[in-house]
Design brief:
Helix 10 packs across helix 11 and helix 11 packs antiparallel against helix 12. The chain is built from 12 helices and 6 strands. Strand 2 (113-117), helix 6 and strand 3 form a beta-alpha-beta unit. It has a 6-stranded parallel β-sheet with strand order 3-2-1-4-5-6, with helices on both faces. It has 285 residues and is an alpha/beta fold. The protein has helices at 2-18, 27-48, 59-62, 64-74, 90-109, 120-136, 155-169, 184-193, 208-214, 223-232, 235-268, 271-282, and strands at 78-83, 113-117, 148-150, 173-179, 197-202, 217-220. The chain starts with a helix and ends with a helix. The longest helix is centred in the last third of the chain and has 34 residues, at 235-268. The protein is elongated and about 75 Å long. Helices cover 63% and strands 11% of the residues.
């Protein structure tokens, strides 16, 4: 034990001597953070001042109200599946935001909503979200707590239960928004078999082909997270979305500039071009 203590002390002293308040080797991370934060703040200020910010149309979200109207005309319910993950997943949080917007439309149309969930915490969050939406729509009397219910923690038991709901209740519109796994095609194919209009969205790339093949509209990757800002038009969310896009655009410009400068330096051998290329590429090391 004496040997271990005597060998550990010098190492601890060395680590303490090298530690500091700021790691200068990561200065580029600070520079990129300042650029991205500045872009987000700029767009938040622009959005808050009332300046219109362009966001390209997302076809799946444009048809949400049409799908709810169709269900109302047919007298059939609307099925909403918030994925299989718990509330610690960002996809589930994005799904709750979309559920809130959808519930507001459903309350206005006086249609029926059915939300089977896999996690108890998601059930509580979904009930709170939908209740608030019905209150904001002026229809607290139409809110039905039992419409949002727990089914099962087991993946395929949950999928089988949702399939049973689709076959028995034959909803006119099915929404699959959140984190999905192997059950995605099972759910989407069952909804397709009854002729329901289907809108899906997930940030998991392996499941996207199944949703694209079996659903009418699919939110691909980041469209799921952008949907909340797209639908709500809330200035802070819009500004954050535009600021992140601006940050990606700046990164792309720097990458293209670095590639061109490196190519020019290898062809000409110019030290000036090499110095400029080193500065540009330093940001992304």
């Amino acid at each position: 034990m004496i040997t271990l203590v005597s060998t550990a002390l010098p190492c601890f002293a060395q680590d303490t001597a090298e530690s500091g308040w700021f790691n200068t080797d990561r200065t580029q991370a600070l520079v990129l953070g300042v650029i991205l934060t500045g872009a987000i703040l700029l767009y938040v200020i622009l959005a808050s001042s009332g300046r219109p910010l362009f966001i390209r149309k997302i076809a799946g979200l444009e048809t949400v109200e049409e799908a709810v109207g169709r269900a109302t005309e047919m007298g059939k319910p609307i099925l909403y599946v918030p994925g299989l993950n718990d509330m610690d997943d960002v996809q589930t949080i994005a799904s709750m935001n979309l559920l809130g917007h959808l519930a507001t439309i459903i309350a206005g149309y006086d249609s029926r909503l059915h939300v089977p969930v896999r996690k108890s915490l998601v059930m509580s969050a979904a009930r709170e979200t939908v209740q608030q939406s019905y209150l904001s729509a002026g229809r607290p009397d139409a809110y039905q707590e039992d419409a949002i219910h727990y089914v099962s923690d087991a993946q395929f038991a949950y999928a089988a239960a949702v399939d049973g709901i689709i076959v028995r209740e034959r909803p006119a519109a099915c929404f699959y928004l959140g984190g999905f796994y192997a059950e995605s095609l099972i759910l989407a194919e069952t909804g397709n078999s009854i002729g329901a209009i289907q809108i899906a969205g997930t940030a998991r790339p392996p499941q996207l082909p199944f949703f694209v093949a079996a659903c009418d509209y699919t939110l691909i990757g980041e469209e799921l997270f952008a949907a909340s800002a797209y639908l709500s038009k809330e200035p802070r969310m819009l500004g954050s979305l535009k600021g992140q896009d601006a940050g990606k655009g700046i990164a792309i410009l720097f990458i293209i500039a670095g590639s061109l400068l490196t190519t020019a330096e290898s062809l000409t051998g110019s030290e000036t071009v090499r110095d400029i290329a080193d500065v540009v590429l330093w940001l992304f090391r």
